[in-house]
Specification:
Length: 328
């Protein structure tokens, strides 16, 4: 199914979601449906037996789209690419979504399926909009002119600052990733914080590929998951009494997308902090009265965004644990 939306500043419907109906039920005179995005669909398509991916990144990723469509049409087509690095990854009847995850980690790439049903496998999702879009949230009692509300917190349950990656390929290879910045930043001022995880990446067939995959994984979990959620004021007409005119102000739904960089400004009674943040999650909500809201989860600017990083169960676990902290 595909969902469309009418922007406030336009007159043409635009696609905002493409997926499939996973479950439905009738409740009185209403029908309730649960829809999943098309990335989730590819958990139920698999690669070949001991299939080797040693070509250019985008070419290999697009090949999986073609294979899936050969088996039976999915409605998904190949889109933007440009990842030309070559790595050596072998997978044995793995879900296609997992294969894309491994290829993205090996090639330091990111991927998505757009609302138009186009699969992109690119060096980085989104674009740098930090010079044009600023979100200001204040803790000094002043008016939060850009935001309806915000939430701040950190969760370090799964944090590690050293990852030992291993693979049985080639008689056994290993690579150790250290985030020295995180080790120093979260230490006690004298001693660094060394939190270790040993992880097997059997899909890596050489040291170069193992290094890339271990680094990608380590860069995601070497800092606490930042729970900085903001709800910006959406686009609306604002009256200017001086000029006696009305103009559109605020954000429109399609002004930002996952991966974009924006400028976040925190104003307190004692200081103003300005930092570039990356959008790791975007949620649109519509209440029973038809009022729409837009919520962003912001993370550090260099965070590596993948489907696993945004896995629903992981996020739900974080939300539940934050509720416990709030209640405490």
């Amino acid at each position: 199914m595909k969902l469309f939306r009418m922007p406030r500043n336009g007159d043409t419907m635009v696609p905002v979601f493409y997926g499939y109906i996973e479950a439905e039920r009738d409740i009185d005179d209403n029908k309730e449906v649960v829809c999943m995005g098309m990335l989730e669909f590819f958990r139920k398509r698999i690669t070949g037996s001991d299939e080797n991916f040693n070509g250019q990144g985008s070419t290999e990723a697009f090949g999986l789209v073609s294979d899936a469509n050969t088996l039976s049409p999915t409605g998904i087509t190949a889109g933007s690419g440009g990842v030309t690095s070559t790595k050596d990854v072998t997978l044995d009847q793995a879900p296609v979504l997992s294969a894309w995850e491994d290829l993205a980690a090996a090639h330091s790439a990111e991927f998505e399926i757009s609302p138009d049903g186009v699969f992109d496998f690119v060096s980085s999702l989104g674009s740098d909009k930090s010079s044009t879009i600023e979100l200001t949230f204040r803790t000094d009692g002043g008016v939060k002119s850009d935001l309806e509300e915000y939430e701040m917190g950190e969760d370090a349950k799964k944090m590690v600052t050293r990852v030992i990656g291993t693979s049985s390929a080639g008689g056994g290879i290993s690579y150790t990733y250290n985030d020295t910045t995180a080790q120093s930043e979260f230490g006690d001022g004298t001693n660094n914080l060394i939190l270790i995880e040993k992880r097997n990446f059997s899909q890596a067939q050489d040291i170069g590929t193992l290094t890339s995959i271990t680094t990608a994984y380590g860069s995601q979990i070497s800092n606490p998951l930042t729970e900085l959620r903001v709800q910006p004021i959406l686009m609306r007409k604002v009256y200017d009494p001086i000029s006696n005119t009305r103009s559109l102000q605020g954000l429109e739904y399609d002004d930002l997308e996952v991966g974009d960089l924006i400028t976040a400004i925190i104003e307190t009674q004692n200081e103003t902090i300005e930092e570039t943040k990356r959008i790791a999650e975007l949620v649109v909500r519509v209440d029973e009265n038809g009022k729409e809201s837009l919520v962003f989860t912001l993370s550090k600017s260099g965070v590596f965004i993948t489907a696993a990083f945004l896995d629903g169960e992981e996020l739900e676990d974080v939300k539940e644990r934050l509720k416990v902290l709030e209640n405490a």
